[in-house]
Amino acid sequence: MAHKNWGFCDLSVSRDCDITKIYCLQKLGLNTVAINTHVEEIGDEPKKKKRKGETKEKKDFVPDPVDIPKDLNKGEINILQRVTIEFSESSISHKFNHSENIRKYDIIAVVPKTLQAFQYACSSLDVDIITFDPQIRLSYKVSRKLYNQAVERGLFFELMYSPAIKDSTARKNIISMAHTYFAVGKSNNIVITSGADNYNLIRGVHDVINLGFILGMNSNQSLDSIRNNARRLIIKAEGRKSGKHYMLVTPGKKEKNKTVKE
């Protein structure tokens, strides 16, 4: 997976889009697209008394990834599966550990809804992206310490642009968050995605790079946000899925040169 040519990436396109038309994004200069499944926060269900002989059904809070036709995987565009999960408490890790479906996704993103959740995501949670709901103004302050802690752990912060096209409130919140990321972390480890639920809202590569200037980034950071940072994120996510490995290298025995007499 790490050896693929990921090129320019859009790591958040809603599963509501018609998957069969995803190759139209090649005309915009994109090489890699992540199909996003959004999971809203769900409270714990009340415990029910188990009757004799009754088997308890395990409900996975993460749905299955969207089905991708086999012929689409043979094309020139790379298709990944992403899940974005809202949470408010550190108990989310328990749900992560007991979910079978979450292991089917290539990229895991979270939306921390409280300061406690944001602290846990930056310091401990084994995910790839920290993002936010652009329709709602953040209820907590992003500190330099937590931001840098997340960057050191290889996490990335997401900025979406399609909500800014549709709604003025979202536009204000996205620009405000972008400037916060610049103030506390110099816009390190930023990925710009469309977050689109409609292909018409996805913009070309050069337009997205130019958009980076509005979001407080220089030309190199804008380019990295859809190429180099996205590639690093994908490779990091693959490492998370594979788990910790080690390799033992032992020197081989040198064979003495033998002369053959004729």
Domains (count): 1
Task: Measure the end-to-end span.
Answer: 51 Å
Anisotropy-based shape: globular
CATH architecture tag: Alpha-Beta Barrel
Sheet with the most strands: spatial strand order: 1-2-3-4-5-6-7
Please describe the biggest sheet, giving its number of strands, its sense, and whether it closes into a barrel. 7 strands, parallel
Low-confidence stretches: 258-262
CATH fold description: TIM Barrel
Q: What is the count of β-strands?
A: 7
The structural class is alpha/beta
Write the element-wise H/E pattern from the N-terminal end onward. EEEHEHEHEHHEHHH
Mean pLDDT: 88
β-strand percent reads 15-25%
Mind telling me the C-alpha Rg?
Answer: 22 Å
Discrete helix count: 8
InterPro entries: Pol/histidinol_Pase-like, RNase_P_p30
Family: Belongs to the eukaryotic/archaeal RNase P protein component 3 family.
Organism: Papilio xuthus (Asian swallowtail butterfly)
GO molecular function, one term: RNA binding
Summarize the structure.
By secondary structure, this protein is α/β, with parallel strands linked by helices. Helix content is 31%, strand content 16%. Keywords: tRNA processing.
Describe this structure in words.
The chain is an alpha/beta fold. It has a single domain (9-41, 64-242), classed as Metal-dependent hydrolases (TIM Barrel, Alpha-Beta Barrel). The protein has helices at residues 92-97, 115-123, 144-152, 162-166, 168-185, 205-214, 219-226, 228-242; strands spanning 9-14, 32-39, 78-87, 107-112, 129-130, 156-160, 190-193. Strands 1-2-3-4-5-6-7 form a seven-stranded parallel β-sheet. α2 (115-123) runs parallel beside α3. The chain starts with 8 loop residues before the first strand and ends in a 20-residue tail after the last helix.
